[in-house]
Design brief:
InterPro entries: Spore_IM_YlbJ. The chain crosses the membrane at residues 25-41, 53-75, 95-114, 135-155, 161-180, 216-236, 290-312, 324-346, 358-379. Helix content is 79%, strand content 0%. It has 389 residues and is mainly alpha-helical. The protein folds into 2 domains: 1-38; 45-388, no CATH class. The chain is globular and about 75 Å long.
Length: 389
């Protein structure tokens, strides 16, 4: 039975790569429906796990950031920050200063905040679609809560390793954006919109209501993808999909250790949290696990890509290009992680556990986020006042 379902899934995937994409999606949905009927108890439990993950972890982590960021954009705070960072952003990534703003916000809040902020800026006509694509090459990142807390402390039992992964992840994002700038034509991708200096009467209540409404809708989309992919992962495990794939690769004379890594990467690329957990439980060396986890965190997984696709659906951003960005981000992060491990540029023992509580406390993180925004806004206004005189 499992082999039969495996063959159907592979055949369906081959159809998807041809001109019969629509039919393959229909067949896939029917197959998933069949598996839901065959494994109702397992599907129900995985859906519950997905709901718990979304409601107790994702919503408390992301919803406040989404609401605050939407309000900041409506109040035109990013404009001042954008002007201050414009020279640096143009030099590194060939974007306006909004690129630096999205990058900073994404560092704090993690996936898929970078995509959400970029979509909001495009809808507000602050940036063009082309600039949005360029910004996403370096501003779609995971946050310290997940990398240092969940992966470093929770999965690898060492918060210092979480810092190591976080640094590799961020350096990979910066490298990705810089390389994309080098390999694309220089052209005017900025919006010809004058920055507003007028003092209008701001209806804070109206802005707050709209920000909450939009942010709740976005969180709802994210929850749907988390639940769906939780069920899909469970169904694939129940039909031994990756076990059969591993056996098939071995029969094709692919060395067992390589086939194991291929199956692990494929399984891990479905959903980032589950993927990092799978890799952390491997019997491989710590350095190998670190490199693989670094790739998976930066690639983000198909669940996150699905969430981003939903968020960017109205922006006309090329999703295939975004997936390519995440793939190269993963490669750069893994490469940087490998280099740092080889040359020992980062001594993880220098980090003390007392700093972990500061990074992992959501209240402190939110306060730091707001303080940073306030400081950047004040600095930018001071900077341009000095330039005027």
């Amino acid at each position: 039975m499992n082999i039969f379902v495996f063959v159907l899934l592979i055949t369906n995937f081959m159809l998807f790569l041809t001109k019969f994409k629509k039919k393959s999606i229909v067949y896939l949905l029917l197959l998933v429906l069949l598996l839901l009927v065959l494994y109702p108890y397992q599907s129900l439990n995985s859906a519950k796990d997905g709901i718990n993950l979304w409601f107790f972890v994702v919503v408390p982590s992301l919803l406040p950031f989404f609401i605050i960021n939407d309000m900041l954009i409506s109040l035109k705070v990013p404009e001042n920050i954008s002007r201050m960072f414009s020279p640096l952003a143009k030099y590194l990534f060939n974007t306006s200063g909004y690129g630096a703003y999205v990058f900073i916000m994404s560092l704090f809040s993690g996936y898929p905040a970078g995509a959400k902020i970029t979509a909001k800026l495009i809808e507000s006509k602050k940036i063009t679609v082309e600039e949005g694509e360029r910004i996403l090459s370096f501003s779609s990142t995971s946050g310290p809560l997940f990398i240092i807390g969940a992966v470093g402390t929770g999965m690898l039992n060492n918060s210092s390793l979480g810092y190591f992964l976080f640094i590799s992840h961020i350096l990979g994002a910066i490298t990705n954006g810089f390389v994309y700038k080098l390999f694309t034509r220089e052209k005017n991708i900025y919006c010809n919109v004058a920055l507003s200096h007028e003092n209008r009467n701001v209806r804070v209540g109206e802005i707050l209501s709209k920000s909450i409404s939009d942010s709740l809708i976005t969180c709802g989309f994210i929850g749907g993808y988390i639940i769906l992919f939780s069920v899909i992962i469970t169904l694939l495990e129940n039909i031994d999909f990756f076990v059969i794939l591993n056996l098939l690769l071995t029969m094709l004379y692919i060395p067992k250790n390589i086939s194991n890594y291929i199956c692990t990467l494929l399984q891990s690329s479905i959903e980032i949290s589950n993927g990092c957990k799978i890799i952390s439980n491997l019997g491989s060396s710590l350095s190998t696990k670190m490199i693989l986890i670094s790739f998976i965190i930066s690639f983000s997984g198909f669940s996150i890509i699905g969430q981003v696709t939903s968020i960017l659906s109205k922006t006309k951003i090329n999703i295939n290009k975004y997936i390519f960005f995440k793939l190269t981000h993963g490669i750069f992060s893994a490469l940087i992680c490998w280099i740092l491990l080889k040359v020992n540029l980062l001594d993880t023992t220098t980090f003390h556990h007392k700093y972990t509580s500061i990074i992992l406390n959501p209240i402190v993180l939110l306060e730091t986020y707001l303080t940073l925004i306030l400081c950047l806004n004040l600095l930018s206004q001071l900077f341009f006042q000095i330039r005027k005189h």
